[in-house]
Amino acid sequence: EIGGRSERHFTPDELAAMWHVAANTVRSWSEGYGVLVIDPPEERFKRGYRSIRVPESIAAEIYARHFEAAA
Length: 71
Fold this sequence. Notes:
There is one protein chain. α1 packs across α2. This protein has a 3-stranded antiparallel beta sheet. The longest helix has 13 residues. The termini are far apart. By secondary structure, the protein is α+β, with helices and mostly antiparallel strands.
């Protein structure tokens, strides 16, 4: 909760399903925005995985830029 309000965060897979695009497309579109990246370090025999969460307000900006501009 920031500034007294909480905001829903989406995974790239959730946004991809809503927007009918690939999750990798959502990941590339979200670069440069204020997304939450959880990047634990790699372990000796296990590759590290980045988890991305996109705040609802940022998702709205991304949607407007890539979908509403085309209309």
